[in-house]
Amino acid sequence: MAPEDRRAALIAATLPLLREYGAAVSTRQIAEAAGVAEGTIFGVFPDKVSLLRATLMAAFDTRPAADALAAIGTRAGLRERLREAVTLLRTGMRANANLMAVPRELMKDDAEFFKQIMEGRHLIVDGLSALIEPDRDRLRRSPKASAELLVVLIATTVHRGFGQIGEFGDMDDEEIVSVLLDGLLVRPPTTPSTESAS
Q1: Which domains does the chain have, with CATH numbers?
Q2: Taking the complete model, does pTM exceed 0.90, yes or no?
Q3: 113-126 burial code (b ≥16 CB/10 A, e <16)
């Protein structure tokens, strides 16, 4: 196996273990999951921390999600496009939810990692902005501002206490899109008499 392929295979085997055990995962567990001898790990990575860091970088790489957002396209209506985007992004955020504490242990002084996190967030916002752009004239805020707000709403439903906002874990994908596009006001059903009165 080529070195880059072996590296990718070790990262792929490590990721679910890192999600489950955090930084406490052992190289023995990783080797068993990868189907290799423990010494093979150290032929590719100088130490366990290097492997865990590389795995975190892969886990928080938003390029695949940005590509998937671009693949949604703009043929469907705005709500349908955004529902698909929310489902996609929430799935990814949920998968990485348990990893949120790990970077503090492994990456606290890693400027490259935090640069990747910020660049990744920009990629996602840009991808959402492109989905919203055809409906720019229907919105009171720019596509970028709308995309940033949507990212906050998604994160709020995945990470408890995100931004000290409280618990929104019961929101589904459709409600997230509705809150973004319609606000929080519950609108009573309209009847002919109320329509004529307004």
Answers
A1: 3-58 (1.10.10.60), 60-182 (1.10.357)
A2: no
A3: beebbeebeebbbe
